[in-house]
Write a structure and sequence with these properties.
This protein is of the alpha/beta class. The protein is about 40% helix and about 15% strand. β4, α4 and β5 form a beta-alpha-beta unit. α1 crosses α3. Bound molecules: nicotinamide-adenine-dinucleotide (NAD). The site of nicotinamide-adenine-dinucleotide (NAD) has 23 residues, from loops. Nicotinamide-adenine-dinucleotide binds next to loops.
């Protein structure tokens, strides 16, 4: 075995949205970090100090830790043998029937076993289906013949703002051995202001509950939007009146697409765990995934879509980032096209040769839908005669 102390930390999935800012943050605190990932293209970019996706304030720190040698990138798993601690930050998707792909997640980690050793603590950072950590330990331990060390320290950052939030958010820490708890507490104490010790099950549930809670909050505000719209009221005005000086209501988010790679997926992980009896979770999915349909059905009352040009402003899954994973803007576009509309897409951050500029989109479209409130859309003025559908009220229209 090679020198185990060459890296303080190795991150599997180290070039992803969770792994990369985390690795940069630890490296910036002086740890020797190796990012292991299979993505050759992003590995090249990161070695040159370039971020493969938008994460605010990350690139200058990345350049610094690459230059001072604290951060290395390897597409070869052999680097894992040379680390004191391993963090797993690969994706944990659901399949096309919304079931968690737990087996695939476990198989990836078990496939790396020959590069791990029992002196290492393996910290799961990905969001997992309940009992996954215990399953992993059981399989690594070969049903009690060995003693491996597994911890669960879930990621809770808001994508795009990881560099700030990693240093601000309390860290849930759980482990399946004394060593795992000690090692992960020591590690996260380097970056987190507060460690919250919990059991593995509590940590798994707390992470899934937090995402399902957020998803359900979006669903209720989206349902209110639909009710208000059918009533003929401006939902933004109703919401403002409801929360103004009224603390009990102020956590109600604005209406809008609830999308992205985490909220729906984690709500469905919880639904699968609860034997598909998580009624609020499934209902939230129906409401949130139904919003694009609601918008199209409403437009059809006024427009013959087969003769209408519709522009969608904002293709990322949320404001001011470049990540289009599971964005509902594409679902909206698909439904509009099915009904015969000519559809234009535009985004300020996500790049795609099929996208047009916001100016071209506004010029060409008869109907303009703000799907994501990127900062650049605030105050845009649209000429009279066009229909603007803007859930956030960021765009102005000539009177
Ligand atoms: N994105 C977020 O804001 C966020 C926040 C909290 C939790 N999470 C959770 O964190 C996990 C990762 O999410 P993400 O958004 O970073 O995903 P991602 O797709 O951005 O990153 C995953 C990375 O893992 C790499 N990878 C895949 N298989 C690999 C393998 N066998 N070996 C090495 N590398 C491999 C991929 O190339 C990719 O770079 C998920 O469980 C997600 O639910 C994400």
């Amino acid at each position: 075995m090679t020198n185990p102390a060459r890296f303080d930390l190795a991150i599997v999935g180290g070039l992803g949205h969770v792994g990369l800012p985390l690795g940069i943050t630890f490296a910036n605190k002086g740890l020797k970090v190796c990012l292991h990932d299979l993505d050759e293209k992003n590995a090249e970019l990161v070695r040159r100090g370039a971020m493969p996706f938008l994460e605010y304030d990350a690139e200058p720190v990345l350049k610094k830790v690459i230059a001072n040698g604290n951060l290395a990138v390897s597409t070869e798993p052999s680097c894992l043998s040379e680390a004191k601690t391993i963090i797993i930050a690969i994706g944990t998707p659901v399949d096309e029937y919304l079931n968690p792909k737990t087996r695939q997640f476990l198989e990836i980690i078990l496939g790396l076993k020959k590069y791990f050793n029992k002196n290492q603590t393996i910290i799961i950072r990905s969001t997992v289906y309940p009992h996954t950590c215990k399953q992993l330990l059981k399989q690594l331990n070969q049903n009690g013949k060995e003693q491996w060390h597994i911890a669960y320290c879930p990621e809770r950052i808001m994508q795009g703002h990881a560099m700030r939030e990693l240093l601000e958010l309390p860290q849930l820490v759980a482990g399946l051995s004394e060593k795992a708890i000690k090692d992960s507490t020591e590690l996260f104490s380097i970056i987190s202001p507060k460690i919250i010790p919990v059991s593995i099950g509590e940590a798994e549930l707390a992470k899934l509950f937090a995402n399902a809670w957020r998803y359900i909050q979006f669903a209720i505000t989206n349902q209110f939007y639909m009710i208000a719209h059918n009533f003929g009221a401006d939902y933004n005005k109703v919401r403002k009146a409801m929360i103004d000086g009224y603390k009990r209501a102020e956590t109600l988010p604005t209406a809008g697409f609830a999308a992205g790679p985490c909220l729906l997926k984690d709500t469905m992980q919880l639904a699968a765990y609860s034997g598909n009896s998580f009624l609020l979770g499934h209902t939230a999915m129906m409401v949130n995934e139904g919003l694009p349909h609601f918008i199209v059905e409403d437009l059809k009352k006024r427009w013959d879509l087969s003769n209408t040009k519709v522009g969608i402003l904002g293709m990322a899954f949320k404001a001011d980032i470049d990540d289009v994973r599971d964005s509902l803007s594409f679902k909206l576009g698909k439904i509009l096209r099915f009904d015969g509309a000519k559809v234009y897409y535009s985004d300020e951050y996500a790049k795609n040769p099929d996208f047009v500029t916001k100016e071209e989109l506004i010029r060409e479209s008869q109907v303009i839908i703000v799907a994501v409130p990127h900062s650049q859309y605030k105050g845009l003025v649209i000429q009279k005669g066009k229909e603007v559908l803007d859930l956030w009220g960021v765009i102005k229209q000539e009177q």
